Amino acid sequence: MRALALALGVATIAGCGDDGRAALDGGVDAGLDAPIDAAPPSWPFALPAGFPVPRLPPDQRLTAELAELGRYLFYDVRLSANGTQACGSCHLQARAFADGKVTPSGSTGTVLRRNAMGLTNVAYNPSYTWASPVTRTLEAQALIPMFGKHPVELGISGHEPEILARLSADAGYVARFAAAFPGEAEPIAFGNVARALAAFQRRLISGGSRVDRYRQGDLTALTDAELRGQALFFSEVLECHHCHGGFNFTIATDHAGLPSQEPHFFNTGLYASYPASDPGLWEFTFLEADRGRFRPPTLRNIALTAPYMHDGSVATLEEVVDIYARGGRLIVGGPDAGDGRTNPNKSPLVNGFTITVEERADLLAFLRALTDDAFVADPTLADPFAPPPASPQEHP
User: Fold this and answer.
1) Which secondary structure element, helix H or strand E, spans residue 268, and what is its range?
2) 264: pLDDT strictly greater than 90
3) Count of CB atoms within 10 A of residue 374's CB?
4) Residues 156, 294 within the same domain
5) Collapsed DSSP state (helix, strand, coil) of residue 214
């Protein structure tokens, strides 16, 4: 379908709706956004069948100890200044690490302007956030919710000594930082926190959906309706695969076997004129043609990550399909009223198509078959602070 879900929303790291240009406010030197190395790194975790090795920045590494430290930090509310929010507060495993909200709120209650993107397969992203061409590593992305002031997410800025003291007072963290950063005299530092968070997110790899099982040879994995939907998805009539193809179901994919990839951004005709409060890629380039352009997320686990689009303004997958079938969204009434089909910057692929009721149902069935049930229930990715599930009561 000519770009189905070019901007299907899914969520960023802990508050991840906004880009670093505004959030960091010039107050934090990322120091981690290094050039990308084309050399394939070693990868200490199992990858799904047929998946390439993700690319690591040349000055970063990935170990089981580092990723496990990152898992604890990802779910720990003590990483926020007021002790109320963790990265995992906006990235719920059951929702493929999205949050189910239109837009999330930071630890101080500030509502973010963008939908929290799901974290499925973020290890393969060439860029991060909805519309930043310069946030190229997970390490750099982690600094945005940590230190950002506009908006405040975790709210670490101005509370650095206090938060490091919390971590240093926890014997478990002392041991985990030492194991993750052997040989460092003072491993409990914010640069290492960002590296650990990035390492955990690189573990969030999903490739066990029924679509994957079918591709691996299990011809019973998909129903007849899902197979018809798959044929539609990859057809030249709907053309979904031109923006959401490949193993990761998005054109915005990078890995160690490729030359370094540049990020892709699209205008999907969501608005006739994108609101001044969020003009997308234009904030970085100041080019009129980039107004309203955003990054296309993966469609893996897309059924779990509603609401959709960069601003969370589309509630259901059904509505997403209808928008692309019309070639843009018509909004009647309100401050954003207008016909997105007439947007002059709209991607040429978003020009509409004809689809029957039965075909629409088949396409939706295929998209839902991209759900990886094992991924969203994997205990090695789960909140280590959550109480264990209650045991079933025994009956005499």
Assistant:
1) none
2) yes
3) 10
4) no
5) helix
What is the token pair recorded at 233?
Answer: 């998805």
Domain match, 162 and 260 both: no
Mean pLDDT lowest for which of 6-15, 203-212, 237-246?
A: 6-15
Give the tens place of pLDDT for each residue, 158-190. 999 999 999 999 999 999 999 999 999 999 999
For β-strands 330-331 and 338-339, DSSP reports them as antiparallel
Q: Are residues 106 and 176 in the same domain?
A: yes
Whether the CB-CB separation of 310 and 294 falls below 8 Å is answered with yes
Domain co-membership, 131 together with 152? yes
Provide the number of structural domains found in the chain.
2
Cα–Cα distances in angstroms (integers) from residue 56 to residues 30, 40, 71, 290, 381, in the given order? 17, 8, 18, 29, 20
The answer, yes or no, to whether residue 395 has pLDDT greater than 60, is no
Per-residue pLDDT tens for 54-97? 999 999 999 999 999 999 999 999 999 999 999 999 999 999 99
Residue 9 resides in a domain: no
- 216 and 183 within one domain: no
- Same structural domain for residues 137 and 227? no
Residue 344 belongs to what domain range? 210-368
Q: What is the pLDDT of residues 10-25, one digit of tens each?
A: 333 333 455 544 443 3
Q: Same domain, yes or no, for 235 and 188?
A: no
**Sequence-ordered alpha helix ranges (H) in the chain:** 20-23, 64-74, 138-147, 160-168, 171-180, 190-201, 210-215, 224-233, 241-244, 282-285, 317-326, 357-368
189 with 160, same domain: the answer is yes
- What is the reported pTM? 0.90
CB atoms within 10 A of CB 166: 16
Instruction: Calculate Rg over the CA atoms of the chain.
Output: 21
> Which tens digit of pLDDT belongs to each residue from 103-119?
999 999 999 999 999 99
Residue with tokens 């990054």: 295
The verdict on residue 388 lying in a domain is no
CA distance 280 to 356: 33
